[in-house]
Every structure is written in structure tokens, then in C-alpha cells.
Amino acid sequence: MAEQTADAVVVGGGTVGAWCAYFLRRAGLARVVLIEKGLLGQGASSRAAGVVRMQGGTPEAVRLGQWSRRFYLSQRDEIGTDSGFTEQGYLLPCFTEAEVAAAHARMEMQAALGVPVQWLSPQDVDAANPTLAPGQTLGGTFCAQDGFISPPRNVAAYTVALLRSGVEVRERVAFLGLADDGTVETSQGRIGAGLVVLTGGPKLAAVGRLAGLRIPAGGVRHQVAVTERHHDLDPAWVPMVFDLAAGLYWRPEEGGLLFGMSNPDEPPGENREVDEGYLAKMRARLAALVPVTAGLGLRRVWAATIDYTPDHLPIIGRARGRVTVASAGGAGMMWGPGVARAAADVALTGSSEVLDVSPLGLDRFDEAGHSRLATDPIALPFPERLTSS
Ligand SMILES: Cc1cc2nc3c(=O)[nH]c(=O)nc-3n(C[C@H](O)[C@H](O)[C@H](O)COP(=O)(O)OP(=O)(O)OC[C@H]3O[C@@H](n4cnc5c(N)ncnc54)[C@H](O)[C@@H]3O)c2cc1C
């Protein structure tokens, strides 16, 4: 017998779980309990780079990016604070003819969905990026409305939203399992729950196992660094850039550049140690494209475990009866609020106005975890496998 009851229990205090709990409460549920085994934001959500992009590779990605960006822009009216969204403009340069063709096809899809994306010629790219080594690209796509949030500020924003809206936040309480009658087992007793939403970011597969579910989601090390300041890196002159083929992206940060890159050979699993060898590769690729960075020191370097799914798409769907699963598939800054809202809608009604979630459930994966959906082509090069074994 459960000692307590709730209309909904949400597992995981990252950006997906927290915003989902907030949306459930705002939809009118009287008692929403959020359980987090550590502290709010201590997973991937406080350690991200914060890139928010509507230039998605699939219609689902575009819709989630659009919804989340709108949400970030409306936060102050809604909760009195915000996640620090800055409209910086994002360039995806092309280096080969094949990339140019793919970029034009993507632009057509994005524009049809209302994204104000434009093609920049090689000359336009150089003119818009005075810090970029000239003559490197064959042009690229640019969206002036893309930008970035401050991940720590987003954690602060959702903490405010949770407390103001009356979600019951229980930190240092671990999810331990789920009984057939919907009772949630936690490290501090049982909660009889009307609805259950499972999140967990890079740990979602383990959370799923505790609930008796097989969720094909993984975690892998991802490394980010911030250069020292330089007058050429003034944010007014530096759009965000994603060198897709190399998996390298950068954006302005406090007068320097924040840059991140995923190592395609990194084995899956938790890892937060800085890889100095890989950092040297990141720096070399960045310096080839932004020469001024070659002589700059670093102010910060960190590595953290990023979540991913086999097709780089989110997971949003009911697993069974009253249990809903939500993952942003490694894009929780650009898709997180949209995924959270869609998951709350699905938990409450089975569908969402954010996007058609019917293709995004667990039933798209086969026994081996392979997805029947095409992989989102605009993603960091995460491993193909889910575990290192
Ligand atoms: C270095 C780095 C850079 C990134 N850059 C970007 C970016 O630029 N743009 C972008 O869109 N995305 C980026 N991401 C990805 C983004 O951070 C994640 O997709 C997002 O934070 C996932 O949110 P989440 O709520 O699903 O997971 P998390 O934030 O990891 O939260 C899950 C929570 O669940 C808790 N939990 C786990 N197990 C249990 C349990 N048994 N019981 C209770 N609680 C449990 C964890 O403690 C954790 O707090 C980046 C990630 C990293 C690591």
C-alpha cells in the first residue's frame, strides 16, 4: 500500500522532467510530485552548451525547436524570470557540394514550416563572419532567430517555476521501481500515482529498467571549452556556427568563444573527465576555421555525459497505461520545453498540439533498439551503440 498519493509523479529533475512537472501542474493537476535522486539540474541540464536551433533536420526537430524558442521568449511573462535566451543567429556552413545539396533540401522543408532560414553565398558567409578564415566554405544556411540559452539560468528558471506553481519537489529521492497498480517506489517510501512520467537524460535506460521497460537511450562523454576574451570575438560580430561534418559548434560567451565537439569514437557510458588529447583536436579544428582562437588561453573546460537516442530524435510516448516516457535525445536545450510540454499533454490526453507524437514513441524501436525512423541528419556524431559492451 502506498503511504502517499499524487495525481502525477515525474522522475528526474532535469529540464525535461522539471518543465513537464510544471506543465502538468499548470494544466490543473492538484498534486504533482517531482522526484530527483540528486539535486535539480545536476544531470546534463546544467552542463550543456545551450544551443537552441530551429534549423532542424526533420519536421519534428523543427517543430520542437520552434515551440521551445517561443517558450523561452514568453517565460518572463509566464513565470517572472527566463532561461536567458539570446537571439544570436546560427550559421551551418557547407564544405562540399553534397552538403550544399542537402542544405538546400533542408531549407525547403524548414521554410515550409515557417523557419526564416536563408542561404548565404560564400561571400555572404565571409562578410557575416569576420573571424572566420575567408574562402573556406561553399556557402551555408543561416537563421537569425536561432540562439542560445544559459543552461544554469534555465535550471534556476525551472526551479522558480516549480516552486511558484506548487509542484512538490523532492530532491535526494531516488526512483526505485513501479508496481503494476501505478505505485511508485522511491528511496523515501511509496507514492500512489495517477500518472507517471519517466525522464532521466543519459540515465533514462536505467530508469526504464527500474520500471520494467526497455528504453533504447544512451549517454556518452561530450566536451566543451570557453576561450579567453578577444576583441574580435565581440558577440556583435560572431554568429553561432555548426561545422556539421566535424561535429564542432561554437557561440559567443562572455567575450570569448564557447565551443564543443563530439568524439565519434568515444565509448558510450558515464564519463566527466576532460580528454586533453581530444581537446587538442577540438582546438585545432576551431583554429583552422577561426584563426584568432589559436593563440587564446582557455577559461573553462568541462566534460559531461550527454543523452542520445539511436536516431537522434526525441522519445515522447506512453509506455503502458499511465506511464509516459520523455527524452530530448541530446537536444534538451533546443527541444526540452517542447518535449516536456508534449510529454505532459500525452500523459494527460494521449496527444499533443506541440507536434504529432505518434511516430516518436518506444514502439518505433525493434528488439535491438534500431529505429524505423530516418536519423535526424543535423546532430552531433554520437555512438551508434547504446552501451560499451
Ligand atoms: C556538455 C553538454 C553540452 C550540451 N549542449 C547542448 C546544446 O547546446 N543544446 C542542446 O539542445 N542540448 C545540449 N546538451 C544536451 C542537453 O543538456 C540534454 O539533452 C538535456 O539536459 C537532457 O535533459 P533531461 O532532463 O532529459 O536529463 P538530465 O538533465 O540529465 O536530468 C535527468 C535527471 O534524472 C535524474 N535521475 C536519474 N536517475 C534517477 C532515479 N533513479 N531517480 C530519480 N532521479 C533520477 C538525474 O539525477 C538527473 O538530474 C548538452 C549536453 C552536454 C552534457
Walk me through this protein's architecture:
The chain is an alpha+beta fold and 389 residues long. Helix content is 27%, strand content 26%. The chain is built from 8 helices and 19 strands. The chain has helices at residues 15-26, 59-79, 97-112, 122-128, 151-165, 204-210, 276-289, 336-349, and strands spanning 4-11, 32-36, 51-52, 86-87, 90-93, 117-120, 140-143, 147-148, 168-171, 175-178, 183-186, 189-198, 218-227, 240-243, 248-253, 256-261, 298-308, 315-320, 323-327. The strands form 3 sheets. Strands 1, 2, 9, 10, 11, 12, 18 and 19 form an 8-stranded mixed β-sheet that branches. An 8-stranded mixed β-sheet has the order 6-7-5-14-15-16-13-17, sandwiched between helices. α1 (15-26) runs parallel beside α5 (151-165) and α2 (59-79) crosses α8. It is globular, with a radius of gyration of 20 Å. The protein starts with a strand and ends in a 40-residue tail after the last helix. The structure holds flavin-adenine dinucleotide (FAD).
Report the portion of residues in β strands: 25-35%
Count of individual helical segments: 8
H-E order: EHEEHEEHEHEEHEEEEHEEEEHEEEH
Distance between the termini: 38 Å
Write down the overall geometry: globular
Number of strands: 19
Mean pLDDT: 96
Instruction: Please give the largest β-sheet.
Output: 8 strands, mixed
Radius of gyration: 20 Å
| Class per helix and strand makeup | alpha+beta
Low-confidence stretches: none
Bound ligand species: flavin-adenine dinucleotide
State the share of residues found in helices, binned by percent.
25-40%
